[in-house]
Design a protein that fits this description.
single chain, alpha+beta
């Protein structure tokens, strides 16, 4: 996915809600100046900022990416929306084809030394979420709980709370996250 497509989609989501940049800043905790830069394509949002923006819009990050890209029923690897965090090098790829299905699959690659924090609000519209490690290892921190996951390990999230992903290992960590959206 291009940064331009993402920037346009973020602006369209805000405008569809008749929000000003100040409204979105208040809802997301991101400064108006940074929001303006992101919407103009002058800055690429980090994973943390995307988590805050998707939460403000009441969407998962996958839904946000799907809206930024037009795809068919099959999501071919070469056309799956791919995004890289400019701060950490984290790579996120939406595996699921677009649509209204409540289940989404996401591929993640967290480089050695990478650390990403998501606020609890990013998870408020998720009914269930599970992460399985493919390669490497990742440490997941939720409040007082710490989970060190290695290949084949699977973690089911508890109630929404702030969460941090950390790769303290020497190799790239690859994982898949299954997200089940809450239904209205």
């Amino acid at each position: 996915m291009s940064d331009a497509n993402l920037a346009t989609r973020l602006r369209l989501e805000r405008e569809a809600r008749n929000w000003t940049l100040a409204d979105l800043a208040a809802r997301s905790g991101i400064s108006r100046a940074m929001l303006s830069k992101i919407e103009r394509g002058e800055a690429s949002p980090t994973a943390t900022l995307l988590g805050r923006l998707s939460a403000a819009y009441g969407l998962t990050v996958s839904q946000l990416f799907a809206r930024a890209e037009e795809r068919g029923q099959v999501a071919r690897a070469e056309t799956q929306p791919r995004w890289q965090d400019p701060e950490t090098g984290f790579v996120r790829r939406s595996l699921s084809p677009p649509g209204a299905a409540p289940l989404e699959l996401v591929w993640g690659e967290l480089p050695p030394g990478g650390r990403i924090a998501y606020p609890a609000a990013s998870y408020r519209f998720i009914a269930d979420q599970q992460l399985v490690v493919i390669d490497g290892s990742v440490t997941i921190r939720q409040a007082d709980a710490v989970f060190v996951l290695r290949p084949g390990d699977c973690l089911r999230w508890g109630p929404p709370q702030d969460v941090t992903f950390e790769n303290d290992g020497p190799v790239l960590c690859r994982y898949i996250v299954a997200v089940l959206r809450a239904t209205a």
